[in-house]
């Protein structure tokens, strides 16, 4: 899953942080998130509680001490690192800006001195927002910092062209490259309930599968060509955009007739559409709950473009792309919507404007 650029990875400059910045309080075991968490519960847990975890680590961690690297400490990356720490991995973290480090270091992560330092771990997971950010970090001159027999797991949603370029550059450098985009929002990452779509060398996937299981309730291997996993994720997000627009139009009709939008969502998801996309997004739209931003409008627009590019490459015309693009661009142009969760595109259809 991809999030907005600020959420996924804070900026263009690399920084390091020392353990001297850690505070000396420990998150009580009953405060660590378990079971189902809503997005709002995750947001509430992360900010007031996680900042106070000490460097002694997370409660309940099984000590494996295998060292892995993680790049990209945004809205999705942070909870993934926390899950790896809780599973007992020694995680070396690196981000393009300083901000997200402190709570993770307090929880037991080690800040990398620089990009080469994190790549030297030999097993690196990355969660960055788009093609440009991924390819600017994993340049050919950066790949030389990987030791022999290394594996890079790219968790981001990138274009098929970018996936193919990254596969080629990694292969030429002797590095196994795995595409493993994830399905789910930050709350699912925090509770280990993401769905992971993986493609790449079978032996390399077997090597990193326990890592993926730390934050993914299910890991689906869809082939040995990395770009196939990206195409699957692009297809899922294309369907989600249609889900959001269908919900927006249906709820607008119900509201226009004086009906109860929450009751409509209950009826809709009771039998006809029982999936979590309809139930979760239906409630967000019905109650106009667009914060915290689990996934941003600009990333939705990016993923729509990825779907269009993938379809054009196969000579397929996507009839609804123009409508969806217009809705997304319209929402981005509104100051009251542009920073909210992408479910807020429903406000472009509603009769009564978002308060």
List the helices and strands and how they pair.
Blueprint: H1 5-8, H2 39-50, E1 67-71, H3 77-86, E2 90-94, H4 101-107, E3 110-111, H5 115-119, E4 123-126, H6 131-137, H7 140-143, E5 151-154, H8 160-172, E6 176-179, E7 182-183, H9 186-191, E8 194-199, H10 202-215, E9 216-223, H11 226-256, H12 261-270, H13 276-286, H14 297-313, H15 321-333
Parallel strand pairs: 1-2, 1-4, 2-3, 4-5, 5-6, 8-9
Antiparallel strand pairs: 7-8
Question: How does this model look, in words?
Answer:
This protein is an alpha/beta fold. The protein contains 15 helices and 9 strands. The protein has a 6-stranded parallel β-sheet, sandwiched between helices. The protein has a 3-stranded mixed β-sheet with strand order 7-8-9. Helix 10 (202-215) links the parallel strand 8 and strand 9 (216-223). Helix 8 (160-172) runs antiparallel to helix 11 (226-256), helix 11 (226-256) crosses helix 13 and helix 11 crosses helix 14 (297-313).
Order of neighbouring strands in the sheet with most strands:
3-2-1-4-5-6
The assigned structural class equals alpha/beta
Order of helices and strands: HHEHEHEHEHHEHEEHEHEHHHHH
| Residue share in β-strands | 5-15%
Biggest sheet layout:
6 strands, parallel
| Mass-distribution shape | globular
Q: Helical amount among residues, as a percent range?
A: 40-55%
Number of helices: 15
Low-confidence stretches: 1-61
Question: What number is the mean pLDDT?
Answer: 85
How many extended strands?
9
Radius of gyration, in angstroms, nearest whole number: 20 Å
Cα end-to-end separation: 29 Å
């Amino acid at each position: 899953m991809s999030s907005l650029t600020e959420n996924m990875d804070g900026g263009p400059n690399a920084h390091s942080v020392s353990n001297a910045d850690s505070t000396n309080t420990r998150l009580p075991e009953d405060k660590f998130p378990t079971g189902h968490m809503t997005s709002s519960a995750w947001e509430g847990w992360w900010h007031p509680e996680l900042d106070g975890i000490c460097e002694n680590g997370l409660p309940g961690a099984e000590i494996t001490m295998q060292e892995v690297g993680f790049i990209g400490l945004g809205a999705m990356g942070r909870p993934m690192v926390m899950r790896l720490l809780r599973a007992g991995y020694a995680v070396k973290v690196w981000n393009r800006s300083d901000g997200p480090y402190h709570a993770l270091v307090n929880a037991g992560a080690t800040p990398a001195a620089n990009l080469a330092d994190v790549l030297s771990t030999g097993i690196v997971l990355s969660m960055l927002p788009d093609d440009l950010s991924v390819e600017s970090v994993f340049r050919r001159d950066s790949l030389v910092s990987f030791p022999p027999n290394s594996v890079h797991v790219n968790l981001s949603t990138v274009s098929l062209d970018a996936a193919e370029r990254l596969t080629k550059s990694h292969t030429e450098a002797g590095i196994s490259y795995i595409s493993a985009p994830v399905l789910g929002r930050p709350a699912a990452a925090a509770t280990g309930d993401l769905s992971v779509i993986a493609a790449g060398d079978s032996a390399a996937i077997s090597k990193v599968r326990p890592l993926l299981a730390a934050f993914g309730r299910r890991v689906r291997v869809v082939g040995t060509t990395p770009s196939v996993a990206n195409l699957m994720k692009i297809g899922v997000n294309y369907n989600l955009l249609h889900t959001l627009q269908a919900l927006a139009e249906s709820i607008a009709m119900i509201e226009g007739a004086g009906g109860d939008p929450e009751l409509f969502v209950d009826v809709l998801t009771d039998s006809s559409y029982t999936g979590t996309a309809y139930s979760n997004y239906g409630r967000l739209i019905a109650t106009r709950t667009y914060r915290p931003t689990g996934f941003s409008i600009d990333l939705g627009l990016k993923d729509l473009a990825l779907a269009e590019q993938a379809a054009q490459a196969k000579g397929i015309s996507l009839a609804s792309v123009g409508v969806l693009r217009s809705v997304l661009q319209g929402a981005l142009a509104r100051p009251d919507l542009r920073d909210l969760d992408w479910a807020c595109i429903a406000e472009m259809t509603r009769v009564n404007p978002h308060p």
